[in-house]
Amino acid sequence: MSRPRILIVGAGFAGYRTARTLARLTRHRADITLLNPTDYFLYLPLLPQVATGILEPRRVAVSLPGTLRRVRLVLGEADGVDLDARTVHYTDPEGRGGTLGYDRLVLAVGSVNKLLPIPGVPEHAHGFRGMPEALYLRDHVTRQMELAAAADDPESCSARCTFVVVGAGYTGTEVAAQGKLFTDALVRKQPPRTGIRPHWMLLDIAPRVLPEMDERLSRTADRVLRRRGVDVRMGTSVKEATHDGVLLSDGEFVGTRTLVWCVGVRPDPLVEGLDRPLERGRLLVDPHLQVPGHPEVFACGDVAAVPDLEKPGQYTSMTAQHAWRQGKVCARNVAASLGIGTPRSYRHRDLGFVVDLGGAQAAADPLGVPLAGPLAAAVARGYHLAALPGNRVRVAADWLLDAVLPRQAVQLGLVRSWSVPLESASPELARVPGAPDTSATEKDS
Ligand SMILES: Cc1cc2nc3c(=O)[nH]c(=O)nc-3n(C[C@H](O)[C@H](O)[C@H](O)COP(=O)(O)OP(=O)(O)OC[C@H]3O[C@@H](n4cnc5c(N)ncnc54)[C@H](O)[C@@H]3O)c2cc1C
Known about the structure:
Blueprint: E1 5-9, H1 13-26, E2 31-36, E3 40-42, H2 47-51, E4 61-63, H3 64-67, E5 72-75, E6 77-82, E7 87-91, E8 97-101, E9 104-107, E10 111-113, H4 121-124, H5 131-150, H6 154-160, E11 162-166, H7 170-189, E12 199-204, H8 215-228, E13 231-234, E14 238-241, E15 245-248, E16 253-255, E17 258-261, E18 265-267, E19 278-279, E20 282-284, E21 290-291, E22 294-299, E23 304-305, H9 320-337, E24 354-356, E25 362-364, E26 371-372, H10 373-387, H11 392-404
Parallel strand pairs: 1-2, 1-9, 2-5, 9-22, 11-12, 11-17, 12-13, 20-23
Antiparallel strand pairs: 3-4, 6-7, 7-8, 10-18, 14-15, 15-16, 19-20, 21-22, 24-25, 25-26
Flavin-adenine dinucleotide (FAD) binds near residues 36 and 37.
């Protein structure tokens, strides 16, 4: 008899955990295929540390072939699912199409940058959702500081030294907090001739930073940011973006060459084409993570609207914590549907959050206990080390080196502005047809 074919689409927190758990549960009783654009699992919570020179990029990229035994990796991006024919169509990194059949399907494609209809933002802002964007930002910030150091014109120098981050969720807050430390370190080595200093702004229409988290975490983060010199402006957003700067909602124009867009995410649009019920763009599933009417199809992570059994009437939030735990339950239920074990409902209470603000500062509330300062920073780093499914020694070594050595700030120039467009659903595969070869001259420098 042929073995059942399990196809997992997406190797993020949810898909990676599903694949790893299924490989263990099924042994050789099923064929497990993982479809993902890259050959690595990206540990997103540490991406701000890649962008600000603390971690080398490969530290947060855990090899899929190297860590997932008994799982076949197919490199590609799904672009269509045929629920009747039980097939998924995909495009591989070289642009060739392919089709994969399945007996069980797990959709775990995560989310993409959320765009708001604000003039100039798609052209002039950059998102922060993938490795290319983190590498681009690291180079871009370094380049702005180097150009500012040599500039004689105060206006241009000030624009290069001004970095605007929109969105004060955990991503924007960490980028601004750690970015300020990064540019302060750069400026100590090579101060601008004009005497102008780096100016980081963090904007959000919400009344407080970390608006979706406990107020005590908000207060800690706000205090650290302001003490560090970050210009925190809540209740403020961007009305228009241009090449020279941004017009704020209060009418002020801020000259800048850097607009980092961290306003949040929306579910990956792949599920819109399924013709199944959605909840704010997320594919509706039952507490067993199965799509109603299609018991052979499962979904988990950011892309799935999973009923929150701890908060009746609500759906689980889009966090790594939920995605990781849903992956495990999803694997058990897929295995159960093949006669291995018994199914269970997804139920999980938040264990708290950690927000690493760089240096010896963090805000954390493990098990609801609010922590700040070096203790919170130790908890945050310990948590990340425990949660990383690989590369732990390398990450710890980078942290150690960062504590005793100056940051390495050199531009590698491997990622160009046009190859990380804000609207890109999957930055890893981003290709803009007909994009100019800017390898010699960077467009926005
Ligand atoms: C910078 C950043 C920092 C964050 N920090 C935190 C944090 O500190 N704490 C926290 O709880 N959450 C954090 N989050 C949110 C958290 O990372 C997400 O909730 C989590 O990644 C969701 O897991 P997922 O598996 O659903 O999606 P993802 O982890 O995004 O994985 C989706 C996978 O699917 C792949 N994929 C996408 N489309 C396709 C396709 N069409 N075909 C095939 N594969 C596809 C992607 O390449 C990716 O590998 C952060 C997010 C970001 C961007």
